Amino acid sequence: MNRFYMMVGVLAVVLGIGVFALLKTGGASAPAAAAGAPPTVVDDSFRGYTLGQENAPVEIVEYLDFECPVCATFATIQMPTITEQLINTGKARWRFRDYPLPIHKYSRFAAHAAQCAGAQGRYFAMQEQLFSHHQWAQTGKDPSSLFRDLAQAAGVDLKAYDACMEAGRYAGRIEYSRQEGDQRVVDGTPTFFANGKKLFPNLRRLPNSDDFKSLVDSIIAHTSAKPAARPARR
Amino acid sequence: MRSRQAIALLALVGLFVALYLWLHALGFGGPIKCGASGGCETVQTSSWAAFLGFPVAFYGVVGYLAVLIVALGSLRPAALAQPGWDRLVLVLSSIGALFTAYLTYVELFLIHALCRWCVGSAVIITLIWIVSLFSLRSPATRIDRGASQPLRGPPA
Predict the structure, then answer these.
(1) Closest to A97 in 3D by CA, of A190, A205, A199
(2) N or C terminus of chain A: which is more exposed, having fewer CB within 10 Å?
């Protein structure tokens, strides 16, 4: 019996040390190259991933920050309806541009994860993962391991993803997009432009799918452009 | 008695598994250690990671601690002949196993990610449940008569 209690004591000490070691060491951490601003900004002529037809009469450009909760709400609540009503019907094309806000610790890192997934043709799947599991943005914890999980769920090859993140391959592209946003006086996220014109400057709430439907219908009515038939993802 | 000892050891291991997940949920340490392809962060940051305002792992800590205390209590010489302890462990482990079954369902079909630590905990609570069932059917005094004598009444 005494031997048993000794065994319990030893096991408790070993397990306690194990838990302490696990907490102390943690897992992978965000590579600085992907998490921070790059030393140089390059224009690789990339202008954002788009949803919809090339010849859609209206192009909406959205400047987004992956850590921004309003962007996540918009992506998960409004975008499905917008996709159905405006993008799938060929009325509008949606262009996603990165605008990582400096107040968000991991937004640049998340944007980079999306770009690395995009290099494998999985940008939209990764974007959906990042926004639908948005609790990471509230914890303040290093999301490296989670993003790998999300990338895997999005169908991304993790070996290529890891190499892309480690190298910070698209850090310059993201910074270029952010500076472009500055030039267009993006003052928060999400900020929208329709055919080059800034939208809803005086709206004191998040625009919804009805706002966009009215807007796009109005632009189409004024230009009398014909909507295209099939949607496409690029 | 051996089955009660096995339950105590299993509960101790389960307690530390739950403790690690709970401390991680409270923000201690870095990213969770989950292996190359694990889904622990996905599970831990999902909306199912908290229940009634507390991290799910907290209930694991409480549950395993309760089983451990009861199992250690049942190993006292005075308690060896009392089957009530086995029934109590069976009730506790049944609640734990049912809760774990629900969480595993959530992982598989709602979150679509499996956390290795959660799977480990599920295995532990299932083993505790099986052993407690066995223990109830085979009371401690019958399994290991030589190890400890049940209490007898005062000499006449």
Answers:
(1) A190
(2) N
A19-35 tens-digit pLDDT: 888 887 655 566 677 77
**Which two structure tokens, joined as six digits, stand for B78?**
């005075």
Residues within 8 A of A (CB atoms), B 27-56 only: 27-34, 36-42, 45-47, 49
Model confidence pLDDT, tens digit, residues A166-180: 888 999 999 999 999
Across the interface, of B9, B33, B39, the residue whose CB is closest to A11 is: B9
State the Cα–Cα distance between residues A26 and A21, nearest whole angstrom: 8
Domains of chain A: 2-223 (3.40.30.10)
Partner residue opposite A141 with nearest CB, options B16, B31, B46: B31
- Whichever domain contains B67, its CATH number is 1.20.1440.130
Q: Is B116 inside a domain boundary? A: yes
Segments forming the whole domain that contains residue B101: 2-29+39-140
Calpha distance B65→A161 (Å, rounded): 41
Distance from CA of B21 to the nearest CA of A (A): 9
Q: Say what the ipTM of the complex is.
A: 0.78
- Residues A128 and A133: their CA atoms lie apart, in Å, by 8
Answer whether B45 sits within 8 Å of A135, measured CB to CB: yes
Residue B42: partners with Cβ closer than 8 Å, 6 or more residues away: A133, A146, A149, A150, A153, B111, B113, B115
Structure tokens at B10: 């299993």
Residue B12 falls within a domain, yes or no?
yes
Is residue B104 domain-resident? yes
Confidence grade of residue B58 (pLDDT, cut at 50, 70, 90): very high
pTM for this prediction: 0.58
Distance CA B147, CA A210 (A): 76
pLDDT band, residue B38 (cuts 50/70/90)? low
In our burial notation (b when 16+ CB lie closer than 10 A, e otherwise), range B5-40 reads bbbbbbbbbbbbbbbbbbbbbeeebbbbbbeeebbb
Pairing of strands A58-64, A191-194: antiparallel
The verdict on residue B146 lying in a domain is no
Q: Is the CB of B98 inside 8 Å of chain A's CB atoms?
A: no
Name the percent of chain A lying above pLDDT 70. Answer: 92
